[in-house]
Amino acid sequence: MQFQSVLNSMFQDIVREERSLQFRVGQIFYGKVNRLFNGQHAEISLGSHKLIAKLEVPLVSGEGYWLQVASDEEGVQLKLLEGYSQFPQNTSKVATFIRTLGLRDTKTNQMLGNYLLKEELSLTKAEILTAAKLLSEVSDTGLGLQTIKMMKEKNMPLNEAVFKSFMAVEQEHSTVDLIRHLQRALTIEKDIQRSGQDLLQLIRSWNLESEKQMTLQTEFGRHEALKELKQGITRTGFDYEAKILNGDIQKENFSEALKPLLVRYIQDGSIHSSLQTKEIVGQLLNRMNGFQLHSNEFNQLQTIMYEIPITIGGSIRELTMQWSGKRANDGKLDPNFCHIMFYLELQNLESTIVNMHVQNRIVNITIINDSKTIQTMAGDLIPVLKNGLKDLNYTLSGVHFKETYQEKVQKKKKAYHQTYASSGVDIRI
Q1: Backbone φ, ψ for residue 324 (5° rounding)
Q2: Closest Cα partner for 318 from 287, 288, 284, 342?
Q3: How far apart are CA 135 and CA 112, in angstroms?
Q4: 128 pLDDT band (50/70/90 cuts)?
Q5: Residue 330 contacts by C-beta under 8 Å, 6 or more apart in sequence?
Q6: Residues pairing with 339 in the sheet
Q7: pLDDT band, very low/low/confident/very high, at 192 (cuts 50, 70, 90)
């Protein structure tokens, strides 16, 4: 799991951008009074942000308070969280948070309160209650908290469907693992429904293709890799909803792609299906949806993320890919400036990350793998790669090799300090 954590951190840092503090009515913050000024003014810290507030209720310098956005009209107005004054001053921050919101004093809710403080997250009361309910239903509370943070960073609605999809991406079982589990589960179904039969037939066709490739000992070159990549995207059906909207696919062709078949299996709702099969189908669909939710566009920066099964050397392997770049003036993705990451599970080299930066068609590649011999083995292939890129009008500037421990990503928080004068007022409390 060490390799997966490195990959997740790198993915998250690619498109993370600094955002200034924004207020929404109902948001709950933990604020600390740094110092008081004349005229009922005070310097307030909301996480890493510092503001000047006009106090309309008495607050004590050096003390912290749970605050809620009451209004954003005619300047931001914050109020003490309702019921806050009922508790003694020596009550802990998290205990006050739990009791004020009417939550049960459980270990999970204590972790939620501490996490909101530590990560400087601001949620509405409704979102906090939803988060508490979702966290109570998962076995890994830490992962659930990270998922909630990720959802808020991506401005996703905090609901069960989106939460489960994001959680599924972080789970240990990959798409290929789940497909194999699904095949075994469907094989032993007694009264398998039509959509289940179509799913089983589709998976078996992939297996036959990989067996054929192994028998023919097909050389896996550039053209074969591109073909497998395109075929993998098509047959998993990640973008089938978009194709339906654009009229590029007909409903009768749903049996040719995995995702629409999974949706149809759930919609059929056969009483003869085992709970195990339904659970695997749900996990697989959530995982596919989760990768789509990770794909987004922000300030013309487009991020596309895939996890697809491809056939390499006669066996079905998994390719996780993230492409990040900007759109050109014609609206198309600009191939001159982009960042592409590949994550592969290979039979001999095992977990491998290829991190590729393209700047003005100059390519710089970093390969992350824990094999002691990968650099030696790659020596003869680098000139081939260089010539291949040259044929495509790209220039290879270098190929670098790192082990996992060298590529640990530290999350950096850049504090935003707002300039102010003692006469300025940002908010009212």
Answers
A1: -130, 130
A2: 342
A3: 8
A4: very high
A5: none
A6: 324, 357
A7: confident
Place of tokens 């400036």: 337
CA atoms of 211 and 234, how far apart (whole Å) = 20
CA distance 247 to 253: 12
Residue 309 and residue 393: Cα distance in Å, rounded?
29
Compute the half-sphere exposure of residue 35: CA atoms within 13 Å on the CB side of its CA.
3
Q: Which two tokens mark 263? A: 């949706």
Whether 43 and 37 have beta carbons less than 8 Å apart is answered as yes
Average of per-residue pLDDT across 367-390:
89
Q: Over range 115-127, report the average pLDDT.
A: 87
DSSP state letters, 72-110: -TTSEEEEEPTTGGGS-TTS-HHHHHHHHTT----HHHH
Instruction: Give the three-class secondary structure for 171.
Output: coil
Provide φ and ψ at 372, rounded to 5°: -80, -15
Q: Is the dihedral of CA 277, 280, 281, 282 positive or negative?
A: positive
Specify the higher pLDDT residue, 254 or 177: 177
The closest alpha carbon to 103, from 119, 88, 81, 121, belongs to 81
Do 262 and 199 touch, CB atoms closer than 8 A? yes
Structure token pair of residue 5: 């954590």
Helix (H) or strand (E) holding 44: strand 41-46
* pLDDT tier at 361, thresholds 50, 70, 90: very high
Task: Write the DSSP symbol of residue 331.
Answer: S
Residue 390's pLDDT band (cuts 50, 70, 90): very high
CA–CA dist 259, 59 (Å, integer): 55
* CA proximity to 289, closest of 260, 325, 249: 260
Calpha distance 390→71 (Å, rounded):
58
For 39-77, what is each residue's pLDDT tens digit?
677 888 877 778 777 777 777 888 878 888 877 666 667
CA 85 to chain centre: 38
pTM score, whole prediction: 0.73
Q: Which residues contact 134 (CB under 8 A, 6 or more apart)?
A: 144, 148, 158, 160, 163
The number of residues in the chain equals 429
- Residue 265 tokens, joined: 């299996």
- For residues 122 and 46, what is the distance between their CA atoms, to the nearest angstrom? 10
Give tens-digit pLDDT for 264-290: 888 887 666 788 899 999 999 999 888
Taking the C-alpha atoms of residue 98 and residue 144, their distance in angstroms, rounded to an integer, is 18
Q: Is residue 41 classed as helix, strand or coil in its secondary structure?
A: strand
Question: Among all chains, which residue has been given the structure tokens 């709950």?
Answer: 28
The DSSP output letter for 408 is: P
